[in-house]
Specification:
By secondary structure, the protein is an alpha+beta fold. It has 2 domains: about 10-50; about 60-235. About 25% of the residues lie in helices and about 25% in strands. It has helices at about 1-50, 135-145, 205-215, 225-230, and strands spanning about 70, 80, 90-95, 100-105, 115-120, 145-150, 155-160, 160-170, 175-185, 195-200, 215-220. Strand 3 and strand 4 (about 100-105) form a beta hairpin. The radius of gyration is 34 Å and the shape is globular. It starts with a helix and ends in a 46-residue tail after the last helix.
């Protein structure tokens, strides 16, 4: 009789403890799942932090492959800067598609007087990459043996060739990091594309960069109607850069009357004038 009672009491106690055990099991399952999710998330973050810098996008077709771009043996100078017609010049040709890149360089990278690099790109049959400004600047810097470390928020400015997209970038040659302004012509599907970057002790402003671009001149079009139309004055915007060289004051001759003396200083302060 007592054995049956004890047996029944044990069964009753086990039935009463079952809900508590189920709750504990559910808590353990939720905790384990949360720990697993956190571990996967942490592993992904560590993988991103330790991953190497992003590489340039792969070519989308055989004609886009970098191996197809080769230096021209005897390049014809098609473009020049108005300020320096003898700027360093090199040409690369796409042997598969007929594309052409003419690159002009001014100054020396890291020098106090600045460095500029501008590329005029005539696409052939290759597919044009739809990439960001940063990726385009990374390509141009890589062509010169440099690397782009970081960039800022892009903005727009005007030139006589239309609107350009630009952003401050940090360019490095492995020894020197220099502040630059990267730029590209904000036009899709155009037969002539222009991009590059200008550098200095301080990041060049948009006005200085616009004057550099506005100074691009056509030296030889080789009877190319596309280039002739692109550089035709009627198709361009007015430039804000000075077109005439500043006047040089001539030395006074012996017959020239002496310049009047400045007015005497009276009580108070000098009278300032604004020369317009």
């Amino acid at each position: 009789m007592s054995f049956v009672a004890l047996r029944r009491n044990g069964v009753a106690e086990a039935g009463q403890n079952a809900p508590a055990k189920r709750r504990a099991f559910r808590k353990l399952t939720v905790w384990s799942a949360g720990t697993l999710v956190f571990a996967v998330f942490a592993a992904g973050c560590i993988d991103r932090l330790s991953a190497p810098p992003a590489v340039l996008p792969a070519a989308t077709s055989a004609a886009d492959a970098e191996d197809n771009w080769v230096p021209a043996d005897e390049p014809v100078r098609q473009f020049g800067f108005e300020a320096d017609p003898a700027a360093a010049y090199d040409v690369r040709l796409n042997t598969a598609s007929g594309g052409r890149m003419d690159t002009l360089s001014l100054g020396r990278f890291g020098a106090a007087d600045g460095y500029s690099r501008l590329t005029v790109y005539r696409p052939g049959d290759e597919a044009l990459p739809t990439s960001s400004l940063f990726v385009d600047m990374a390509r141009r810097a890589s062509d010169a043996g440099f690397a782009v470390l970081r960039d800022a928020v892009p903005f727009a400015f005007q030139t006589r060739f239309g609107a350009f997209e630009a952003a401050e970038i940090m360019v490095s040659d492995g020894k020197v990091n220099t502040s630059c302004l990267g730029f590209r012509r904000a036009a899709v599907g155009e037969p002539v594309l222009i991009d590059g970057f200008t550098c200095g002790d301080q990041t060049p402003d948009a006005a200085r960069t616009a004057c550099l671009i506005d100074g691009l001149r056509l030296a030889s079009a080789d009877e190319d109607p596309t280039l002739q139309a692109f550089f035709a004055p009627s198709t361009q915007q007015p430039t804000l850069c000075p077109t005439d060289p500043p006047a040089v004051a001539e030395a006074p001759s012996a017959q020239t009357e002496p310049a009047p003396l400045p007015p005497e200083r009276r009580a108070g302060r000098w009278r300032h004038r604004v020369v317009r």
